[in-house]
């Protein structure tokens, strides 16, 4: 961004306070933050320290720099004036900004290593634009994400307008994904209902487990339907079935292949390199088999019951097909 761009953006941001009164609070708290930074106030430096500085590995496909969320929302600014000393002025607000370059209308599906036809001339020049052209198709579904710490007096709409102005200066589209301020824990009616539901389930499990232990030591057999339902929630019996060593390896395989595809993608460039490795194909193609392993996991749970046997699967499959 050139010097003219910086001056223009700051003027436009300050002029917003005259157009919309609600924005004046954001500007006022931001000016206090700038004054605190100039005086090297610890609370002001925490705003800078918790915000993202740069994106490391951008040319390798790393598209995020999230900053420090906890440090930002835990930053509190109190008044230092004698008249209202110790009074809360504002606190840190964590905002996630998203930026993506303007793209032409999507004409179809693009592979990870394919180049958009509209950007082919830039790619042939072997310049800096060529590096961006390699990943341009990825911005149809992802964006560059940057975490910043701003005063709590700024609303999400305020930050969104600033992101749009900064994006215009950089030649990209900018917007706010989310803004969060640390608040006291509040329990809504839905939270209370959830706690009651989990408490009821926990009570049923405790009662069922107690009856199961009593039945085991006293050799008592309960035939009442209510007692049998409670025994179905027994932690002792269900844990024995879950840890059954006869099919524990199969269960382990189900859990492994349900979790292996859920890996974190660090960068697009390393992923393109890994994709050429033969052994890495197991991870890439495992994403398509997650549903199958969920079905197999369900069948293994049915195998634990006395009324079902996996040997009947072939007969059931034939009946479903024919």
Automatic annotation (TrEMBL):
It comes from the Eukaryota. The chain crosses the membrane at residues 192-215, 221-239. Residues 23-184 form the Nose resistant-to-fluoxetine protein N-terminal domain. Coiled coil: none annotated. Keywords: Membrane, Transmembrane, Transmembrane helix. This is Nose resistant to fluoxetine protein 6. The gene is nrf-6_52.
């Amino acid at each position: 961004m050139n010097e003219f761009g910086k001056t223009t953006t700051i003027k436009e941001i300050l002029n917003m306070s005259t157009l919309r009164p609600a924005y004046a609070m954001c500007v006022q708290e931001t000016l206090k933050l700038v004054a605190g930074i100039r005086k090297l106030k610890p609370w002001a430096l925490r705003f800078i320290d918790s915000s993202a500085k740069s994106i490391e590995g951008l040319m390798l496909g790393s598209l995020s720099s999230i900053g420090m969320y906890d440090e930002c929302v835990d930053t509190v600014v109190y008044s230092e004036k004698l008249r209202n000393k110790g009074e809360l002025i504002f606190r840190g607000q964590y905002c996630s900004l998203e930026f993506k370059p303007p793209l032409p209308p999507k004409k179809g599906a693009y592979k990870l290593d394919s180049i958009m036809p509209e950007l082919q001339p830039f790619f042939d020049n072997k310049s800096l634009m060529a590096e961006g052209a390699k990943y341009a198709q990825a911005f149809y579904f992802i964006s560059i994400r940057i975490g910043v710490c701003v005063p709590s007096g700024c609303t999400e709409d305020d930050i969104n307008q600033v992101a749009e102005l900064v994006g215009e200066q950089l030649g990209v589209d900018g917007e706010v994904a989310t803004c969060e301020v640390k608040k006291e824990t509040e329990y809504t009616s839905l939270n209370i209902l959830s706690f009651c539901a989990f408490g009821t389930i926990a009570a049923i499990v405790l009662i069922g487990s107690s009856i199961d232990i009593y039945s085991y030591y006293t050799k008592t057999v309960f035939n009442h339907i209510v007692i049998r339902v409670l025994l179905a929630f027994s932690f002792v019996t269900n844990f024995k079935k879950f840890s059954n060593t006869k099919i524990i390896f199969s269960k382990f395989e189900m859990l492994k292949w349900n979790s292996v595809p859920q890996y974190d993608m660090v960068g697009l460039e390393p992923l393109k390199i890994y994709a050429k490795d033969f052994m890495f194909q197991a991870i890439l193609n495992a994403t398509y088999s997650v549903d199958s392993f969920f079905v197999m996991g369900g069948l293994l749970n049915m195998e634990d019951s006395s009324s079902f046997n996996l040997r009947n699967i072939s007969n059931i499959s034939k009946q479903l097909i024919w």
